[in-house]
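Study the following:
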Amino acid sequence: MKTSRTTAAVASVLALSLGAAACGGGSDSGNGGSGKKDAALNSIVNASSKKGGTVVYEHSDVPDSLDGGNTYYGWVQNFSRLYGRTLTTFQPAAGKAGLKVVPDLADSLGKASPDAKTWTYHLRAGLKYQDGTPITSKDVKYAIERSNFAPEALSNGPTYFKTYLVGGPDYKGPYKDKSPDGLKSIETPDAQTIVFKLSQPFADFDYLATFSQTAPVPAAKDDGAKYVQHIVSSGPYQFSSYEEGRSATLVRNKNWDPKTDPIRKALPDKIMIRFKVNPTTVDNDLLADKITADAAGTGVQPQTQPKVLAGKDVKMTDGSYAGATSYIALDQHVKPFDNAHCRKAVQWALDKQSVLDAMGGSPKGDVASTLLPPSVNGYTKFDTYATPNHKGDQAKAKAELKACGQPNGFSTTLTARADRPSEVAAATAIQNSLKGVGIAADIKQFPSGKYFSNFAGVPSYVHDHKLGMMMMAWGADWPTGYGFLDQIIAGTAIKPSGGNNLSELDDPKINKALSDAIANTDTAARTKAWGDIDKMVLDNASIVPLVYRKNLLLRPTSATNVTVTQAYLGMYDYLLMSSSK
C-alpha cells in the first residue's frame, strides 16, 4: 500500500477519471458478443485463449516511426507494446479497467518522495532482449536520453523528461555528450534500479512512465534514426522484416519469458502490417474479412460509413469516443494571426456543424467548444464563441476583421493530411465557411507520416510557406488535463521539428499555470486548473476547437479478443487482439 501523499494523489486522479477499475467491463465467454453493435466498448468480443494465427493490420500512410523513442502517434504507442516493454503501461482490459496504469518492466508503480520530485522504479528479475542479453536500468536510462535529448536524430516524441528532469534543458543527449554518467538526474545505482530527480513536483509520473520512450535500448546497438531498421525487442514479438514505407512483420521472441510479463498473453504466431494502403481499400478489406484491423484506429472513411450503417455490418461496429479533439491551430507567427482579432474572426466565422457533417456527422463525433474533450479529467463545459446551432456569426466575425485591420478579409493557407479523407473534407467545409466573411483559405495537403517532422511541426517551414491555419487532431497522452494539454500549448513543447504545439503558443501565464497545476498534489485543485487553463487558451484564440472525435470501428468476424481501449484514443487494444485465421 502506498503511503505518501503524492502517490495517493495519483490514485485519486485514477479514481476520479476512471471510476473503480474493478467495476470495468468483463469479457464475453465466447462468441456471443461478436454480432452486437458496440459490444467491444465494455467487453472482450470473441474471447479466446487459443494460440496461433496471424494478425494483419493495414494503414493508409506510414508511421512517424516504429522506433519507440521517435514516435508520437497514438496507434504506434499502442502497437509498439508488442515489441517494447515500458516501465509502466495501461492494463490490457475491457472498459474502464483498461485505463488503469500497471507495472510492466518495473515490479511496481513508482515510489515517490513526499515532495513528488524523486521517483524510483525497480526492474523485474530475469528480463532479456531478443538476443538473450539482460535488460538493465542503464538501458532504460539510455532510451530516455536518446528519445528526449537528441532532436537532431529523433525529433518526433514528446519532451516531458527534458522539461522536468534536473539539468534536462541543458543536456545535449548521448550522441553529443559522451560522458559516462550521461544525464546525472537519472540515476542507476544498480542494474535493477532507476531513480528520476525532477526540478519540480510531477504528480502524474506513473503515467509518463507508460510512454514508449521508456522501452529499453541497448546503447551498443543504437545508431540514431537508423535504429528503426533493426529494433532490439524487449517484448513477446521481434521484427523478422521491416521495409520502410511498405510493411513490417513480427514473429515470436524466443527469449521473452512470460513469467516476467503478467499482462501480455502473446497469442498470435505472427503479426503483419502493411503501409500506404488506400483508406477505402482498408475499409473494404475489413468488410471482406481480409485483415484484422485498421492500424490507425480512427474508424471507417466517410465514403464507407453509409454502407456500413445501413447494412448488416452495423452489428460489427463499435462507436468509441476517442478522447480526442479535432481543431485548427492558428500560428501566431504567421500574419495576420499575430493579431488576436484576426484569430477571433476565424473563431466567430466558422460553421462548425458543417465541419462535423463533412467528417461524417454524429457517428464521427460532437461539435466542440473546448480544447479538452469531455472524457478527460478536468474538462469544464463552456463556449467562448457560442453561436446558434454552431453555425457561426458573420456579423461578429466581420467586427473582429475590422478590429484587426482587415475589414475585407485576408488570404491564408490551411493544411490537412492528404491520406485522411475526413480531414480533407473538414478542411473544405472550413474553406467554404470562411469565404462568407472574405477569408480565403488555400488548402495544402501533406502526408500524415511526415506532417509533423517535415511540414506543420517545423516552425521554419511553417513561417517560410505562410501556413497560417493547420488541421490538427489530438488525444490525451494520459487521461488527465495535463496529459492532454501540455504538448500542444506549452512553450517548452515548441521544437525545431516534430512539434505538436502548432500554434507556437508560448504565453507566460499559460506556461506558469501548467507548471503550477502539475506540481499541486491537491487532486481537486489540480483537476479544476485544467478547465481554467482551457479557458485561457480559448481567450487567446490561437486554437479553434472543431469536433470531439468518435471512431466508427469495424470488427471483422475472424478477429478475436477485441476490445476498445480509451488509453489509446478509442482504438482496439493491440496487446489483446488475435485472429482465428
